[in-house]
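mind reviewing both lines:
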Amino acid sequence: MVGGVETYVMLLAQGLAQRGVQVTVITPTPAAAMDDDKLPFRVVRQPGFLTLVKLLRQAEVVHLAGPCLLPLCLAILLRKPVVIEHHGYQAICPNGLLLYEPSGTVCTLHFMARRYTKCLRCNDAKLGLFKSLAQLLLTFPRRWASKLATANLPITFHVENRLHLPRSKVIYYGIPDPYEGSDPAVASGGVQSQLCPPMFAYVGRLVAEKGVTVLLQSAKELVDAGYSFRLKIIGEGPERTMLENLVDSLGLEGRVSFLGSLTGKPLANELKAAAAVVMPSVWEETAGLSAIEQMMRGGTVIASDIGGLGEVVGEAGLRFPAGDVTGLASCLRRLLDDPGLTKTLGGKARERAQEFFSQERMVQEHLCLYRKVSSDFPQASLPIS
C-alpha cells in the first residue's frame, strides 16, 4: 500500500534505523513485490495474535500509525509506553474523515456532539447498517484508549484542535531534500516549468473528498475565458471513470490527461514541468504530503484553505475556499497571467519546507519524544544520537 501514512512510516523507520535505533515495523499487508531484506529495519507482516503479543512485549516504545485498537489496547495492558500518530480523525469520527457522506460536506462533529444517528446515516449508504453500526461502536473504545496513550502526536495543529486528546504534541511530516548535496544554485532554482502552454498537475487518490471535480469545473471556466493550458491528473481511484466522463461533458478533451499512478523519476519529471500542483480537497485534509513534496522541490502549490492543508501551505502558496470553483479558477488565472509568480512562490515554498518539513527534524523530534515517554518506564532505553 502506497500513501501518505505508508510513506511517513517508511521515512521515520529509515531515519531511526540510521541513528542506531532498533526498529521493527509490524504491518497487516503482504509483501507483494516488496523485498523487505533490503530495508534497514525489520518487517513483520500479518502476525498472529501470540506473535503480536510477543513483539509488543519486546518493544521499549510502541509507536502506532493511527489508533489501531488491538495493538493499542495490548500495549496499554502490557504497560508499554505507547505513542499514537494521528493521521486522520479516527478518534472522533467513525469513518475517520470528518466527512458527512450523504451530502459530501465537512462533518460538524456529530460523534462528539452525541448525534449518533447522524453517524449511522453517514456510513449506511456505503457500508450498510450493520457495518455502519460496527464503525460507530468501535469509535468509543478507540477514543477511550487514545486518551490512555502515553503521548498523542497529531500531524498538524488543526488535527490537534479537532481531536482534543491529552498529552498531545504536534510533529509535522518530514521528507528528504531532493537537492541535498546539490549546487546551491540548482537547489534555489527549484521547479521551473518550461511548457507552453503551461501545465498544472493534480497528484493524489481519485476519490470524492479530494475535490477533483472542483478542479475540472475551474478548468472549464478558464477555457471559456480563452486561456490556454494543460492539466494532468496523476493517481488512481474509484472516481476515475466518473472524472473521465466529466472531462468529456465539459468539453475538456485534449486539455486534460489521466496518467494513472506514478512514482519515482516519472512523477518527479511530470511535477518539474508543472506550473503548480493543485490540491482541491473538500474534506479537512490532515496535512497533505503531496503539497509538502512539491514545496520541498521548490514548486508552487495551489490548495484548498481547509484543515491541515491550509496550515501546511501557509503563505508560501495560493489558497482558495474549499469547493469554490471560481476561487480556484482565480488562483490558476494568476499564474497564467503572471508566469514570474511561479518562481517567487516556489522559492517561498522551498524555504518553508526546509524550515518545517525536513526528515531530519521529524526524526529528531520523535527521538526526543521517545526518550521522554520512556523515562517513566525503567525497561525502556533508547540510544542518544
Observations:
- The chain has two domains: 4-174+359-374, 184-356.
- The first strand starts at residue 24 and ends at 27.
- Residues 37 and 43 are 9 Å apart (CA to CA).
